[in-house]
Amino acid sequence: MNNLTKKLSTIALFFLSTGFLFSCKKDIPGMTDSSSATDNSNSDVAGAHKRSTGGGDILPSPIVTTGTTTVNWNNWTNASYGLSQANQDFGGKMNYWNAYNTQTVNGMLRATMQANVVGPAGGAMGLDSIAHGSEYQLNYDIMFDNNFDFSWGGKVGFGLFLGEGNTGGDPAWDGNGGSLRLMWYKNTSTSPIILKPYVYYKDQPGQYGDDFGKAFPSNGTSLQKGVWYNVKMYVKSNTGSNTDGRVQVVINGVTLLDQAIRWTTNDLKRQVNSICFENFRGGSETYWASATNGDIYYDNVSWTLISQ
Fold first, then answer.
1. Strands, E assignment, 63-165
2. What residue spans of 19-120 are helical by DSSP H?
3. SS3 content of the chain, % helix, strand, coil (to 5)
4. Which of 56, 126, 239, 294 allows an S-S link to 148, with CB 3.0 to 4.6 Å?
5. What's the average model confidence in pLDDT over 37-60?
6. 220 close to 197: Cβ distance less than 8 angstroms
């Protein structure tokens, strides 16, 4: 394949990845297919997984060219899914896979949140090292099972880490890292249940992740159970101390967040280096808990290295 063909293939892969994922969903009984203000109580108890990328503790950077990597679970039988299986799917660069209960079910990944447990111990956590790059897009499909009690909220889904991957109430004010994740959340017992961005970056206004006042759905309605949502995340590193980076979140084709951002001020820690998988209730206070187990399904995870 000559250089021109390689470049054209890469461009085609990028544009395909930015389109909506019209995938055929697997059958789950009773499920349907539809395209239909941060406070300190959001304390992120997953902070223990933060890791330094300085000195001799630099995460491995797989040698790959720009392009798209896709993970689905079509070829797995219905069974438990742990670190060994995740390494097969994510290229052998999974730093950890800590889960109360994750399984492959009908060609999807199911993560179960344990009743009466707040924090990562009752959910599912993973961290995958990817080729270091200054510009990435991440896509995935997510569905809350009909058995899922939204309770008060929590961290959910896949996300992107830059530099030291700040989370866990460790604000990114030192300019050495950041992260982009999602929460499901409600403000009061009667307020709508929403998805919102949860972002750590150099200029974040408070100790915990910034949601920029954004919510999906934005019309006062709630997330629904048994409905697939397509999530697209885009991160572009800033340069030096400039606010010329970018953060974007699009859900079911609706732009939730899209703006310039200053992720870091340390050029040695400015790149995206990991994909996280975080599903747990909380916060840390007991009111985040649920009295029942609840399942979340995932499919069609893909990430595109746009620029190194």
1. 67-71, 79-80, 94-99, 102-105, 108-113, 124-133, 135-144, 153-163
2. 83-89
3. 10, 40, 50
4. 294
5. 40
6. no
